[in-house]
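lol ok so funny story. i was supposed to be doing the assay writeup but got distracted and ended up predicting the structure for this chain instead. priorities right. anyway since i did it might as well share w the group, maybe its usefull for someone
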Amino acid sequence: MIPASIFGRYARALADVVTEKGDEAAIQRDLDTYREIFRSVPALLETFDSPAVQLEAKEKVLAGLMARYPVCATMRNFLQLLLRHHRIRYFAEICDFYTKTVNERKGIAAAQVTVAGPLTEADLSRLRASLVKVTGNRVTLTVGTNPELLAGIVVQIGSTVYDGSVRTQLDEMRRRLASE
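and the output, tada:
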């Protein structure tokens, strides 16, 4: 496995080019498309990563893929660069770093929210407003459910976790009672 700093280097370079050219929407669309392609057909990444397959053959496969699923010029160059530098296998990780880099530059904090059951739009608005106050940034929410929480909410922003779940509160009470 290559270090995360390398993912970041490719992601920042792409973000720099996108910022300069102003084609963020096209790049995001292309990243999403190819992320889904590589996720749904893992044999493609295995082929691109295989030392048994010649680079010219890999380039033809990638060219065929881009002919079928067209991309903007910046994305075409980026995919070819990743292929030539043997980094295309890490496409998903580089995409994650790219999104994080772009969000940081825009002052957007990405929050992963886990709840026991679905939230209403009003609940999401209040939560977003609270997180804006805490972070000082605009906030995007990715909401998931986990019935094992029983009730409450767990929010992760970067490496910080705010755990207000009933499950955690019960575990803490159990721990305190056991130590007494």
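The CA atoms of residues 75 and 102 lie 16 Å apart. The chain has a mean pLDDT of 84.
back to the writeup now i swear
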